[in-house]
Amino acid sequence: MAVFNMLPTQTMQLIHVHCKSKDDDLGTHIIANGDRCEFSFNVNIFQTTLIFCGIGWSGGLAVFNGYKARRDLERCLRYCMWDVKAAGGQGFRDGVSNRNIVIP
C-alpha cells in the first residue's frame, strides 16, 4: 500500500499518516509534498485483513480503510494507491489512473 502527498506544492504541507491493523501497528510517517510512503503487510488466510489509517494535515483529517481484503484483494494486485489532496483522499486500482474510491 502506498500513500502519496499530492497537496499543492506551493503550500509545502506535510501529511502525517498512521496505519495499523488489529494486530500490527505500521507506524506513523511524515510525508513531504510530492513524496510517498509505503506499507507492507500480508493478507491472512481468511482474507479478513484490514488496515485502517488516519491522515492529518493543516487543512484536514481523514480516517479510512487503506486496505480491506474483501474489497482490495483483486483491486490491488501489487499496491493499493492513495493520493491525499486538499479535497480529501482518492484510492486507485493497481495500474489504473482513474480513482475508484473517494474519501471526503
TrEMBL record:
InterPro entries: Self-incomp_S1 (IPR010264). Keywords: Membrane, Secreted, Self-incompatibility, Signal, Transmembrane, Transmembrane helix. It comes from the Eukaryota. One of its GO terms (biological process) is rejection of self pollen. It is found in: Secreted. One of its GO terms (cellular component) is extracellular region. Coiled coil: none annotated. Pfam families: Self-incomp_S1 (PF05938). Belongs to the plant self-incompatibility (S1) protein family. This is S-protein homolog. It comes from Punica granatum (Pomegranate).
